Amino acid sequence: MKVKVFKIRIPEEFLYKDQKMLDDFLEANEIMKVETAFVSEERYWSVILYFEDLKPAKNTVKEPKTVKYSAESETLNMDEEKILDALKLWRSEKAKEQNLPTYFIASNKELVSVAKYKPAKKEELLEIKGFGKHKIENYGEEILEILESI
Asked: pTM (2 decimals)?
C-alpha cells in the first residue's frame, strides 16, 4: 500500500487547483483509506490517502474531453432558488456529518449549475463541470433525490 499527502488550501485562488489535483488522483488510484486534518496555523486541509495503483489498460485510446455544463450566470428563477437552497442545506449537513469543509462536497458554482441544469440521472451529473466519478458515486443519489423532491 502506498501513501500520498495532499494539501488543500482554503483561499479560492488555490482551492480549484488543489481540489482538481486530488480529484484526478482519486480517479486514477484505488483508495484504501483516507485521513483528513485541518492545519489551523496555516489554514489548510491535509488529506492523507492510502492507495494501490490502478493498472491502466494497454492500448486504450482516451475519449476527447467534452465541454461540461457550467452555469454562465448566477441569476436563478424561483424554482432554481428553491433547489439551490435545498442543495446548500444538504451540503452543510453532509459536510458536518463527514467532518469536511462544505467545498469538499460541492462548490457554490457546482450547486448553481445543478439547480439550472436539473439532471435526472447520474449520467447527466457527469455533464456538469466539477462532477466526476468520485463525487457522483459519493453524492449523486442524494443530489438526484433532492431534485426529485422539489
From this structure: 0.56
